[in-house]
Amino acid sequence: MATAGAAALGLAAGALPAAAADWKPVRPVEFIVTAGPGGGTDQFGRVVQSVIQKYKLMPVAVIVTNKSGGAGTEGLIAAKGSKGDPHKLVFSTNLAYLMPMITKVGYSIDDLTPVAIMAADEFILWSNADGPYRTAKDLIAAAKAKNGSFRMGGAQSKDTDHILTRQIEKATGVTMTYVPFKSGGEVAVQLAGGHVDANTNNPSENVSHWRAGKVRPLCVFSKQRMPLKDKVTADMGWSDIPTCKEQGIPIEEFRMPRTVWAMGDITPEQAGYYRRLMAQVREKPEFKEWLQKGLQTDMFMTGTELARYIANDKANHKVQFSQDGWLLKD
């Protein structure tokens, strides 16, 4: 996947005339982060900023601004008002193009220029360590027996966790009560305290509670087991977590891509500059360390490959949103 993306980037860059490739920002570039300080998207934007500054990949300074209101839509609405400005980038997830499908957000994804997918977060099904569920099969059986009273915690309503919870329900025939909180960090605390029965947090959001013996990973929503061999507890590490498909949940893969966007109506030359910039960033050791530390997949796409991915992802989610009654009417 990364190789294909790099190849597509190379073709796009090679097609640019020399004058086009010479465009550079002439004033500080603002990174608009669609999340609050300390969250996954904030870490994403700031690691890109630090790599650019360390290696002097841009001739100007980079300023990070957090705009987390409205589940991140505040930052994207701000971007809509900056059309044509090549000195701003937005750091988000696939929610950038999914949210306009399910709620009135004040912007369209067509107001932005896609730059790159830089990584993808994995999702794990977790239970409380003192609870009765030793496997995902145990959990699903209990959820069926509870007939709607099983509590699945997640970060906000109609967010990524809620989308995955609905997929689990459909794939297994169970009914759950989805309990939204403000963030993945808050969900992790609630599960560790036994206030919800399960959650589908990213690895980095629950790892400290796993290490402390408060939560238990049951399965990962990935085609293969996670490759990292390090042990988190005395007897278990990331590679020991079975896939959810192994555990009888027929969901082959569920990931959240980390996305970068430029403003709408910038020139192809300006968009090409930022695509090449992100390709440079992802090759630096500090970015690779961030990927490993956050247990994220190295997923790089740009150009036509990225456009195809977004179109397919929107189409797949449109089916689910329509079935759930979430889809906004045109």
Count of folded domains: 2
Q: Output the CATH topology of the largest domain.
A: D-Maltodextrin-Binding Protein, domain 2
Order of strands, widest sheet: 2-1-3-10-4-11
The CATH architecture of the largest domain would be: 3-Layer(aba) Sandwich
Order of helices and strands: HHEHEHEHEEHEHEHEHEEHHEH
- Main CATH class of the largest domain: Alpha Beta
Helix share bin: 40-55%
Gyration radius over CA: 20 Å
CATH superfamily placement of the largest domain: Bordetella uptake gene, domain 1
Structural class: alpha/beta
Low-pLDDT parts are: 1-19
Shape: globular
Q: Give the averaged pLDDT, no decimals.
A: 91
How many extended strands? Answer: 11
Report on the structure:
The protein is of the alpha/beta class. The chain has two domains: 2-120 and 256-324, D-Maltodextrin-Binding Protein, domain 2 (3-Layer(aba) Sandwich); 124-240, D-Maltodextrin-Binding Protein, domain 2. 41% of the residues lie in helices and 18% in strands. The chain contains twelve helices and eleven strands. The protein has helices at 2-14, 18-21, 40-54, 73-80, 95-102, 136-146, 160-172, 184-192, 203-211, 268-282, 285-293, 303-324, and strands spanning 29-33, 62-66, 88-93, 112-122, 124-128, 151-155, 177-181, 198-199, 215-220, 255-263, 296-297. A six-stranded mixed β-sheet has the order 2-1-3-10-4-11, sandwiched between helices. A five-stranded mixed β-sheet has the order 7-6-8-5-9, with helices on both faces. Strand 1 (29-33), helix 3 and strand 2 form a beta-alpha-beta unit. Helix 1 runs antiparallel to helix 10 and helix 5 (95-102) packs parallel to helix 12 (303-324). It is globular, with a radius of gyration of 20 Å.
